[in-house]
Amino acid sequence: MNYQGKKVLVTGAAGFIGSHLTEELVKAGAEVTALVHYNSNSNIANLKYLEPHIQSSLKIVFGDITDSFLMNQLSDGKDVVFHLAALIGIPYSYVAPAAYVSANITGTLNMLEAARSQKVGKLVVTSTSETYGTAIYAPIDEKHPMQGQSPYSATKIGADKIAESYFLSFALPVCIFRPFNTFGPRQSTRAVIPTIISQVLSDSKEIRLGSLDPVRDMLFVKDTARGFMLAGLESKSSGEVVSVGTGRGVTIGEIVEMVQKICGTNKPVIAQNERIRPEKSEVMKLICDYSKAKNLLGWEPLYSLELGLTEAIEFMKINKPEFDPSSYAI
Question: How far apart are CA 122 and CA 115, in angstroms?
């Protein structure tokens, strides 16, 4: 994939998916400006895992997507902007919905207006399969109705619709890119697969989780990053919603079994009520129909769930989690 010489901005570059996308863009020849959420310690989070020569080629900027002035400045002269910065934790959205509106809706509006005023060549806005809610039919294609089953998903629906309006109203070249459940190295243990892996690898006698019944389509992060990059290059993706996933659904319980098989363990699983979403908020089934991504972008998943889990496990063997995954934190 040729990004040679292209000037690119990645918001949320220090996040899980953002760091992988940033890494692959540099390898593909892009000149990358990486927006990292401002913090007093100049902590670059997941970008610290990048090879030194890749880190040194980045222009790292600390800031906040709610700062419209900075977003306008950073978008100047960019060929492609990938907008990944967002508040993503579903449990915290029950506690602080206003913060999600500010980051996810207002932040996306700032990026859209910046891209419009600076005449950015292409803007890729990150959506989520959570916008679909529990499947009315499966596998889920882009025509599936949206359901705001959490404040998080509601704000992402709002962001997607504002992006759609900027294409229809102003002909802004924007693609709404909608990954299903991405996993892999560098993911926080607030997410379910790293939570499972870290507890399997720990000295604990048991694994503490929420519901084991929800079905998810787990997409390896390198496949997700490749999809983003294809969407950024393909002019036909402007004005389109593009979903990426594997088309394979597995329950959380099945993922536990797979991880334990790879690691050679057989720990009992203990359900904790505090980890379970409110009944009407739980999304029970998400499986992707990625036909549109295949036809429009030439994208298909390359990693199996088993291979991706193996890579994630190897990463977590080397890198200790930032907090104790057996203790629930929203």
Answer: 8
